[in-house]
Write a structure and sequence with these properties.
about 120 residues, alpha+beta
């Protein structure tokens, strides 16, 4: 699980990552960090310990889309331990992170397009 911060940061020289992690979080998503690092798709630019808030497991939402109606008939929420279904989600629940795993190509696309769980088409 990674946090993607709002904004773009230069990929030049030393960066103060402690300032970057103070930026607003654009979205939280599952990403295979170790595989991407082994393939040299990503590189480490620093280390900042997680604060208490970042250590908490967020509630995620997921659902299976109906491609005929272009809607998700039943959303499910997952808190890392239990799951529960919800037929109609609220605007606030649309902001919850989505329980999906993305590869580097999809992650870059989401970042460059300004994607957030709230503006996801489903």
């Amino acid at each position: 699980m990674i946090r993607v911060f709002s904004g773009f940061y230069p990929d030049e020289g030393e960066q103060d990552v402690t300032e970057i992690v103070k930026s607003p979080v654009a979205f939280i998503i599952f990403f295979p960090v170790y595989a991407a690092d082994r393939r040299k798709v990503i590189h480490k630019c620093g280390y900042v310990p997680l604060d208490e808030k970042a250590r908490e497991m967020p509630v995620f939402r997921y659902g299976i889309p109906d491609f005929r109606t272009k809607k998700v008939p039943v959303w499910c929420f997952w808190d890392g331990e239990k799951e529960w279904p919800v037929e109609n989600i609220t605007d606030e629940q649309r902001k919850l992170p989505m329980k999906i795993i993305v590869n580097d190509i999809a992650l870059i696309d989401k970042i460059e397009s300004g994607w957030t769980p709230e503006n996801d088409p489903w």
